Amino acid sequence: MFETKQDIIEKIKTTSATLQNDEIAVLDNSNEIIDQKYLGIYYEKQYDQNGDAWNLVKASKHFRRGKMSEKALSMLSKYDTSRNDLTTKSLLLAALHTTKGAALADLNELEDAIVEAQMALRHNPYSPYPYNLMGRIAYQSGNPQEGGSSP
What we know:
Elements: H1 5-14, H2 21-28, H3 33-50, H4 54-65, H5 69-76, H6 90-106, H7 110-123, H8 128-140
Helix pairs in contact: 1-3, 3-4, 4-5, 4-6, 5-6, 6-7, 6-8, 7-8
């Protein structure tokens, strides 16, 4: 294990090695924007290496925490959510649409964010995350009373 956050960040910057869980936790538990940015970079590299789209969901979360919502959106475009094959699971698609919607809401693109939340709900109507996003959008658009209603 690397001893400091700076060592972990240097590992992310200079290698494509997989981090250990305790190394990820050091950055994940940090409130510093720069640490979130580097975790976003790490998970994007992981996606590029292994094609596991859950890494895009994680990268998006960290880019957004790192105040890099534009980067989250551009990175999410690496995965074609219109794919309809057996390897594309509804939970994954719901998560991808939800995180894309959240990034759009960060950028105040609320109409597009609503579309993404609705797509997420089509893939997984039991997940609380798209509903949370819809509530956030309602609140952000000045209609908090609509935040508790189903789409």
